């Protein structure tokens, strides 16, 4: 009786182990296709913005976006900047400056890119240096892995997944990081989007 119970536990353990080691992805694969249109850059806390007011150098300045998402420039205090494109911020600045200047023309140039958290590409799990990375045009999984230092020795790279917001819903896709990094399979080099979360689980052994 005791040997039968022990055998049953061994069989159950083997089933769990085999199922846990399965390489079959849990989620549909993410298509490796180029993007039709790159999203506009969104300003975030930590960015630095150069404000140029044409014809009024005394009103032009280079200022950081504060943690509360606002900026302060000559004549203007607490202007919301986070969550806007540079063009949208320029139009807002023109509207406020119109109180003091006739027909102001403003240009906004962003430097020291960080972007809002919602627009960063975040890596969690078994990466050498998990972190949030500012999105760059045509960023791929390979670009992202170089940025975070690659996989750890305990990473289950082919069981990694990308969580992406599509039409207001979070959708999860499988990615093959082991095939990409260790085998050089460029078909596994998928494109990233702002707000993507790359999850890299730990292997069982």
Task: Describe this entry's structure for a reader.
The protein is of the alpha+beta class. It has 2 domains: 48-111, wza like domain (wza like fold), CATH 3.30.1950; 117-200, Outer membrane lipoprotein wza domain like (Outer membrane lipoprotein wza fold like). It has 4 helices and 10 strands. It has helices spanning 2-20, 86-97, 141-147, 177-181; strands spanning 48-53, 61-64, 70-73, 76-80, 106-111, 121-125, 132-133, 160-166, 169-175, 197-200. The strands form 3 sheets. A 5-stranded mixed sheet has the order 7-6-10-8-9, with no helix packed on it. Strands 2-1-5 form a 3-stranded antiparallel sheet, with helices on one face. Strand 6 (121-125) and strand 7 form a beta hairpin. The protein is elongated and about 65 Å long. Mean pLDDT is 84; it is low at 1-22.
């Amino acid at each position: 009786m005791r040997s039968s119970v022990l055998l049953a536990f061994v069989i159950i353990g083997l089933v769990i182990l085999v199922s846990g080691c399965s390489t079959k992805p849990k989620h549909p694969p993410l298509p490796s296709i180029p993007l039709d249109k790159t999203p506009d850059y969104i300003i975030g806390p930590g960015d630095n913005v150069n404000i140029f007011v044409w014809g009024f150098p005394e009103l032009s300045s280079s200022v950081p976006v504060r943690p509360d998402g606002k900026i302060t420039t000559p004549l203007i205090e607490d202007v919301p900047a986070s969550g806007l494109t540079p063009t949208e911020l320029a139009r807002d600045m023109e509207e406020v400056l119109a109180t003091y200047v006739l027909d102001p023309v403003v240009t906004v140039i962003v430097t020291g890119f960080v972007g809002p958290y919602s627009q960063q590409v975040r890596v969690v799990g078994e990466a050498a240096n998990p972190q949030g990375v500012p999105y760059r045009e045509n960023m791929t999984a390979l670009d992202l892995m170089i940025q975070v230092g690659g996989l750890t020795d305990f990473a289950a790279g082919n069981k990694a997944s990308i969580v992406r917001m599509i039409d207001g819903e979070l959708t999860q896709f499988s990615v093959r990081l082991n095939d990409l990094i260790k085998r050089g399979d460029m078909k596994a080099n998928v494109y990233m989007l702002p707000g993507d979360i790359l999850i890299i689980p730990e292997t069982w052994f």
